[in-house]
Specification:
Chain lengths: ~425, ~350
């Protein structure tokens, strides 16, 4: 099927530009069948690049997101990676370490003004750059907070941990909502480390000790992490949030139909909220549990595969994509955050006064990338398991200890992951 | 025979070649690779070289230790109790984590424990998740094999009648088998949905609202039984068809003779039908046992091993480790252990059901 599509693409391209002797570059993309304009925009980007110069001819192949990482892994084993890879930010170090990718080799000065989450670094070199970033916010309605006398927090003065917990209790005790807080527990997978490890970091813990990346001892099971774990378990024991058996449909519609009062959700889900509530919609920073208010950074990015015979062409394509006009176009089409302030000024939602402007501030001020280590892909699964177990009533300290041990064993089995 | 098969049968071998090649490539070679990988530290993707590690992977999976916890004592040696009167023990982690006095406990976790006098005896395992997977899998097999075989036999007896429209019933009973297990699992996830789920609604309606809605898949006590019930429902039609085939091989003359002798329905079943189904019963028992050990799709779609590892099973663990956590050697070791268990059980079943002369 995909091969036929590639052939078709080659034929069409060949007919369109028979005279030009363009060298072919392959590009793999994760967004097949995306609900918004993402796929169409990527195709447009490729077309315009091909038309803009005569050396390179990019041929795109798209995959469904769920199958994408598997496809890349299989292609790497078979030695058939494309020239240009699309890679999720936190996964990039693993692919770089495993030898799927090579350093990007573009001038870092050009990336100076980018949001930190859009640049993928490993071992001191830039391997990937994103055309957008994503951010997470406490999504709610001004009228809800006012009804219960809860302060509307700001970027400079977010809720404190206690203030947040009290607010949730107040809303719960009113009985007006099924649950005061929707954490998105239905979204098993990368959502857990992406959305919940920043809360742990705000407590002062982390998934792994970032000074060495060799152990999680004392970081994921230290006092700060235990305090986080107990608070996390309390959310479910006190009926402040639905647990792991939350229905995915409730996650999607719960805030809009009044099942939940506050939803911890990404900016990709923000536009429907604005449409439903208008000026009443609020996107608030994460609570500050003592170490500042933190959100996760980094989304999908472009990089060059290690086996590419034409890294110059791959680089040329990525440099072509790194223009404000593309950033703005993707942002308008998908609701994601453009990586530069100049591009943001040119978008419908992130310009001054735009509906989602607050996300740019959140991303700029608070985004912390997930642990930059090849072991992250395994650590993410272990962290997800620990949080699910604690939510389901496991002993906090035992669950965190088990996670620390599993992370340690995995790092050891991989000879320290090259740090 | 052997010489004919090997020497003067070129065309036969040629025709068998595509099939044999595919089976070799996708079943026989991976089977031996699993044995080989389980003795190394092979990763799914890694720049590090693969090394032989002996039986380390098996030791990490199967390591056990027994430890007796003595209660915390006060200054006078009296046992300390908490507010509710329960005896207070030191935390296990003080022995299992970085304690040079107890090297045999290092990194192990509590699997289960029991009280003996003032002391608490704890069984620790190197890999508690795997141990839970072993127990859950056996629990699943022990329930599913007899219940599914029994219900399938009942259905087969019901539809082995010459009634008008009996094919409609056959089709209905067989339908779940034809539908993909992933689709069935998704549907049952909705049925078991907490709060407003179909099952909760039906039970509430039948009990005139007395039934308290349950979180079927979200509670440790009901998650595995829910999956067992759903798996039986899904698989029963297939084995019904095998029973039916067995039933139809029994000669009608035997039934006629039994009728002339004046046997009642139970006697007919006990002395005519059941002996005639002997070989079918052996086949069904072995097939169900093997299929039950291979439980994977339902777990992956419905619970992913949770809550609190109450639905962890063999194959799911092998996939999670080997593929998701990129630890091919660990996943292979689990596969090898599963193979040995299934082999042992099949041999025991064959021995118990052998023809006794």
């Amino acid at each position: 099927m995909t091969r036929n599509m590639t052939l078709a693409a080659i034929c069409v391209a060949g007919l369109a530009a028979p005279a030009a002797a363009q060298t072919e570059l392959s590009l793999w993309y994760h967004g097949a069948g995306s609900a918004n304009a993402e796929e169409a925009l990527v195709n447009q980007l490729v077309e315009e690049f091909n038309a803009s110069q005569s050396d390179w001819q990019v041929v795109i192949e798209t995959f469904p997101q769920l199958a994408y990482n598997d496809a890349v892994g299989a292609a790497a084993l078979a030695g058939e990676l494309p020239d240009i890879l699309d890679v999720d930010g936190p996964v990039m170090p693993n692919w770089a370490w495993a030898g799927y990718m090579q350093p990007l080799g573009i001038d870092e000065a050009t990336l100076e003004d980018y949001l930190p989450g859009t640049i993928g670094r490993w071992n001191g070199e830039v391997y990937s750059v994103g055309l957008w970033d994503a951010a997470v916010a406490m999504t709610t309605r001004r009228s809800t907070l006012e009804a219960y006398g809860i302060r509307v927090p700001t970027l400079d003065a977010p809720w404190t941990g206690d203030e947040f917990t009290e607010a949730l209790m107040t809303i719960r005790d009113s009985g007006d909502f099924e649950y005061p807080l929707d954490l998105g527990m239905a979204w098993r997978g990368e959502w857990y480390p992406y959305a919940f490890s920043p809360l742990l970091q705000s407590f002062g813990g982390d998934i792994i000790d970032r000074s060495t990346y060799q152990s999680a001892e004392g970081v994921l099971n230290g006092d700060a992490a235990i305090a986080f774990g107990e608070w996390w378990q309390m959310l479910f024991q006190e009926n402040l949030a639905p647990g792991t058996s939350q229905d995915a449909a409730d996650r999607d519609a719960g805030l809009l139909n009044g099942t939940y009062a506050i939803s911890w959700n990404g900016n990709w889900a923000a536009l429907p909220v604005v449409e439903a509530f208008g000026d009443d919609a609020l996107f608030l920073p994460a609570p500050d549990f003592g170490n500042g208010s933190v959100i996760g950074g980094a989304s999908w990015q472009f990089g060059v595969s290690a086996t590419s015979e034409n890294p110059d062409g791959a680089r040329a394509f990525i440099e072509f994509a790194l223009q404000d006009r593309w950033f703005s176009a993707f942002s308008d089409g998908t609701g994601l955050i453009p990586p530069t302030a100049s591009a943001a000024a040119d978008t419908a939602n992130y310009a001054a006064g735009g509906a989602l402007e607050v996300f740019y501030g959140l991303s700029e001020a608070q985004a912390l990338v997930r642990p930059v280590t090849p072991g992250y892909i395994v650590q993410a699964l272990i962290f997800e398991n620990a949080l699910a177990d604690i939510a389901n009533g496991a002993d906090v300290l035992d669950a965190l200890d088990a996670a620390v041990d599993e992370i340690g064993a995995d790092i050891e089995a991989n000879d320290g992951y090259g740090h | 025979m052997a010489s004919k098969l090997t020497q003067s049968n070129k065309a036969g071998w040629l025709m068998a070649f595509p099939g044999i090649a595919l089976i070799a490539a996708f079943i026989i070679v991976p089977f031996f690779l699993a044995f080989a990988f389980s003795l190394t530290n092979q990763r799914l993707a890694s720049p590090n070289p693969t090394e032989y590690v002996g039986f380390d992977n098996y030791r990490d999976l199967l390591g056990l230790a027994i430890f007796t916890l003595e209660p915390e004592r006060g200054e006078n040696g009296q046992v300390l109790r908490d507010d509710e009167g329960a005896i207070e023990y030191p935390r296990l982690r003080t022995f299992t984590r970085n304690n040079p006095d107890y090297p045999q406990l290092d990194g192990k976790r509590e699997w289960f424990s029991w009280q003996s006098g003032e002391n608490r005896t704890v069984v620790l395992a190197s890999d508690v998740v795997f141990m839970r997977a072993v127990v859950n899998t056996f629990f699943f097999v022990i329930f599913v094999a007899p219940v599914q075989a029994g219900i399938a036999l009942g259905l087969a007896l019901l539809i082995n009648q010459k009634l008008r429209g009996i094919n409609v019933f056959r089709t209905i009973y067989f339908m779940p088998v034809v539908v993909s297990i992933v689709v069935v699992s998704l549907l049952w996830k909705f049925i078991y949905s907490p709060g407003d789920g179909l099952l909760n609604n039906i039970l509430g309606w039948l009990s005139f609202g007395l039934f308290e809605p349950r979180d079927w898949l979200g509670s440790t006590s009901t998650a595995l039984p829910s999956i067992i019930a759903m798996s039986i429902w899904q698989g029963v039609g297939f084995h019904m068809v095998i029973w039916l085939a067995g039933l139809q091989t029994i000669s009608p003359t035997l039934y006629e003779a039994a009728e002339i002798e004046g046997s009642n329905k139970w006697q007919t079943f006990r002395y005519v039908t059941w002996p005639g189904l002997r070989n079918t019963a052996v086949l069904i028992l072995i097939v169900i046992t093997m299929q039950a050990f291979a439980l994977y799709a339902q777990i992956n779609v419905m619970t992913r091993g949770g809550p609190l590892d109450s639905t962890q099973v063999f194959v799911f663990q092998a996939v999670v480790r080997g593929y998701e956590r990129q630890d091919i050697s660990g996943g292979s070791a689990i596969s090898v252990i599963l193979f040995l268990i299934v082999l042992a059980i099949s041999l025991i079943q064959r021995y118990l059901t052998r023809e006794k002369n």
